[in-house]
Amino acid sequence: MHDELTQVDINKMKEELQHRIQVLRPQLIEEVKVARSFGDLSENFEYKAAKREKNRNDSRIRYLENMIKTAVVIEPASAGTGITLFDKVTFYVEDEGIEETIQLVTTLRQDALKGLISKESPVGKALLGHKEGDRVHIQASDSYAYFVQIRKVEKTGEDPDIPISTF
User: Fold this and answer.
1) Quick check: pTM over 0.70?
2) Please, which pLDDT band fits residue 1 given cuts at 50, 70 and 90?
3) What does the DSSP assignment read for 112-163?
4) I want to staple 110 with a disulfide (CB 3.0 to 4.6 A). Which of 20, 89, 118, 145 is the partner?
C-alpha cells in the first residue's frame, strides 16, 4: 500500500532526511566514538545512550527514504461542495451531545490531540465528500459506530506549517 501525500509532505520529508543525513548522523557518530573512549562498554551508559540515538536516527532515515520512494503524490482539492483534504469541519456528535472541530490532513501530518485527523481514519473516510447539514454514519470499529451532523465546513487549503509526524 502506498501513502497518498502532497508535494508539501514530500518536500518536508526530503528536508528532514537531508538534515538527518548531513547534520545529525555525523554528530551522532562522533558522540558514539567519544562515549566508546570512556572504557568498559558493558557499564558505559553514555555509549549505550549514544548508540541508541544513532540507531533511532538511522531508523528514521530508512523510514523517510521508504516513504518518499513509495508515496503517491496527490493534489489537495481546493474547491467543490463536499469535504476535501485540509478542510476544517465542525460537527455535532449525537451520542455525546458535543461539538468538535477537526481538520482533515494526510496520514503523515495527523495529530489527533491537535484536531488533525487523517483522511484515512474512520472519521476522515466517513466525512470526505459530504457537506454542511449532512448526517454521517461513522463506523469507528466493528462494534462501535455513531452519527454526526456536519455543522460547518471551512475550505482552508493546505497549510505548509503543519509539521509531519515523528515516531
Assistant:
1) yes
2) low
3) GGGTEEETTSHHHHHHTT--TT-EEEEE-SSS-EEEEEEEEEE-----TTSP
4) 118
